[in-house]
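Tutorial handout. Part one gives the primary structure; part two gives the three-dimensional structure as tokens.
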Amino acid sequence: MAEQKRDYYEVLGVDRGADDATIKKAYRKLAKQYHPDANPGDKEAEVKFKEASEAYAVLSDSDKRRQYDQFGHAAFEGGAGGAGGFDFSGMDFGDMFGDIFGDFFGGGSRRSASNNGPMKGANLRTSVRITFLEAVFGCEKEIELVLKDECGSCHGTGAKPGTSPETCSKCGGKGKVVFSQQSLFGMVQNVQACPDCRGTGKIIKEKCPDCRGTGYISARKKIKVSIPAGIDDGQSVRIRDKGEPGKNGGPRGDLLVEIRISPHPVFQREDMHIFSTASISYAQAVLGGETRISTVDGDVVYEVKPGTQTDTRIRLKGKGVPSLRNKNVRGDHYVTLVVQVPTNLSAEAKEALRTFDALSGNTLERGTDEPVKAEKTKKKRFGKN
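Part two.
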């Protein structure tokens, strides 16, 4: 008695109403999991792989899927061999497998095949270091790097002047070749970049002596970089069309310049805000008065309030970093005021300070008496022998 086949939808783990993309995704997962190349010698994996491939061969074909939905497995009984009785002879497994796991059959797939059409050149990356203030207000820098340009002798063809590249005879100028290979299901077609022309579709018999057949000449060039106000450390400036040259008439890539900002001895930055500290005298803290505070715009005069405590933070509105999107919008500058305690007082200053202390609570005397009183109180409350 013949073994009863599993439902194709059950094999792939999809609903009966699944679309083509869902069916392909499900088969891709199973094919990679159970492919014989990934499971050498595993008979069970081989069976599951054939089962999944048979299900996909039917459900990925609209006509066969319609027959299967109407008649089930009976629609294909009496087929010419194939996996599990289904006729695979008319299927193009090169197309089916090439898109899903062509690398199992030598690396050639329809998606990975070389494209000899116009292609944009690769982007280049470099970096430049600027100061804290240059980042706040913007600046212009000049960098020097090696760039490729079209060869003036061959005008980018790579062929010796007076000659021209010839169409590749192996691929007919397509840049890719189709080859067949034996698989579990018979001959499978795969697509690869042409080995003779390396996917270009052209053969250069006589190379240009100046560029050695590459079509490009490398030269050191200076490029001006306009750095916008408000840029932050690690961000990049994109310069269009200053990257690698394109291929087959494609546009050049871009140059990405990463900005590195040197630290400032006074200011720190967080997003659009700036932070710093400023010292005020003991007299300013007690009595109040004007003090000068450094900002990125220069010194500003700030009125210290009487009785200001150390580590008081003040806000200087609009003295921060400009927004990259709107240069008229700026962050704020937050300043932490630190009371500077004098260390070298004259005898007269010390005497004046003692007088001040006596008039404002006599903290010097209270500081020496309080510990003694506290000890006596402690003995009185808890001293039982």
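Part three, for discussion. Residues 176 and 194 are 4 Å apart (CA to CA). DSSP finds nine helices and 15 strands in the chain.
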